[in-house]
Amino acid sequence: MSKFITFEGMDGAGKSTHLAWFADQLRQRGLDVVVTREPGGTPLGEQLREMLLNQPMSMGTEALLMFASRMEHIDQVIKPALQAGKWVISDRFSDASFAYQGAGRGMDWDKLARLEQWVHADLQPDLTLFFDVPVEVARERLSNNVSLDRFEQEQSDFFERVRGGYHQRVQQNPQRYAVIDAAQSMAKVKRQLEEIVSSI
Ligand code: TYD
Q: N or C: which end of the chain has fewer CB within 10 A?
């Protein structure tokens, strides 16, 4: 049976590095896996991503464009793949909107919940891997990047709120999440992922 898995965590948590490896592990077990990302994942979504990551905009516009990208992504990529029996792994999904636009920017949580309800009332990830890391560790990792996007340029207090937003989402629905201690070494994080793969 097909499954929808999402990867979440703040910038610098290392989720993207581990996502490719995780997808490979599932493929080696004979699963047909589609890897995708948000914002993005479709031609229109990638154009929206470009704007979202680079252009200043109001908090409301940011939230609406995130969900616009998501609606397109669900219709064009996620649902068709799941219906064809494939597994879908998305680098971020709606938890990021609650963490970044909600907790980070201060957008009303209920408004986001209404957008979530509108855009995907009938779809939630079967499993979300949340890469949790203290803000200082994430920032240290980001400091190696040559160019930082609009989100990555935010200050520590923004990321503290983002992390808190993720924790709130996990608390509201703990059975959907696997919380990964991403402050550990790559090898140790991989071991945590191996356990998840074998439970799948
Ligand atoms: P990210 O997925 O971390 O890509 P990269 O690893 O290439 O930097 O970047 C996407 C950024 O978009 C990230 O900073 C979080 C932000 N974002 C939101 O603010 N809200 C959302 O709903 C989503 C999906 C992403």
A: N
